[in-house]
Amino acid sequence: VSILHRITGVILAAGLIMLVYWLGAASYGPEAYARAQVFLGSWFGLLMLFAFTGALYYHICNGVRHLFWDIGWGFEKDQVTKSGVAVLVVTAVLTVGSWIIGLS
Q: What is the pTM of this model?
């Protein structure tokens, strides 16, 4: 899951570009904002937002895992495996849960 941490960092950087685009469109006026909303509301835009959400939650969860490692906890082989699986499960639950709540 170490490489996934780096990949999610790249996804977060791309997502921040998307956020700047959306904020810029909002500041340029209603037409620009409407175009941004059409793009972000498309299947591709929603897929990008979903990926950004998952990357954000993964990066946070794995960052907490690394904080535990920084204080010396969780270095045994079985603990590393369990914490890696926990990070993936918590990421999935938080991502899907956020989208269920957000779409309702």
A: 0.90
Residue with tokens 């270095």: 75
**CA distance linking residue 95 with residue 58, whole number of Å:** 9
DSSP sequence for 69-104: HHTT-S-SHHHHHHHHHHHHHHHHHHHHHHHHHHH-
- Structure tokens that stand for 85 in this block: 């699986």
Cβ density class 23-55: b for 16+ within 10 Å, e for less: eebeeeeeeebeebeeebeeeebeebbebbbbb
How far apart are the two ends of the chain, measured CA to CA in Å?
32
Phi first, then psi: give them for residue 25, nearest 5 degrees: -65, -40
CA pair distance 73, 3, nearest whole angstrom? 21
Give the tens place of pLDDT for each residue, 25-35. Answer: 999 999 999 99
pLDDT value, residue 1: 83
